Amino acid sequence: MKTIVLMGFMGAGKTTIGKELAKAINCEFVDTDVYIEKEQEKKISDIFAEDGEEVFRDMETTLLKRLQDKDEIFVLSLGGGIPVRKENRTLLQNLGTIVYLKASKEEIIRRVSKDVNRPLLQGGDLERKIANLMDAREQIYKDIAHLEVSTDGKTPEQLVKEIQNIL
Ligand code: S3P
Prior knowledge:
The chain has 167 residues and is α/β, with parallel strands linked by helices. The chain is built from 8 helices and 5 strands; from the N terminus they run E-H-E-H-H-H-E-H-E-H-H-E-H. Strands 2-3-1-4-5 form a 5-stranded parallel β-sheet, sandwiched between helices. The model has no long low-confidence stretch (mean pLDDT 96).
């Protein structure tokens, strides 16, 4: 089995499902946002506000490079913007199987509407922002995904089983 990379839009459930999946197959779990926040001792929103988005994107790429050297398999949940950089897409493909967790726009809006730690969604018209970002990213996600799993209306347990069955 190869490393399993969970990719998808903000609010698709990557962190929740990744944690459960790693437990189910008894391997390490890495979440890029959690890793970066710990390493920097700063919240993502503060990194964006104080250092800027490019600095955050460089942190993501640095982490992906570091993960290339890991010997054991692991489950990796990605920040939703990681696949946008071409360099990152190559790094992700080297890591293992990329699973696209696909959620509808309505479900995403419902899940992220109260969130204050996602800087790209703060201020202005939330629905418009989500629609624009989803439009810009959908094809990128599809291009590098090995598998697509629809998450709407499913529990994390159901999704973990579904992913395990198709791996
Ligand atoms: C981002 C997604 C976030 C986080 C940052 C930027 C994005 O992660 O990395 O706010 O560009 O889509 P989640 O996808 O875990 O929310």
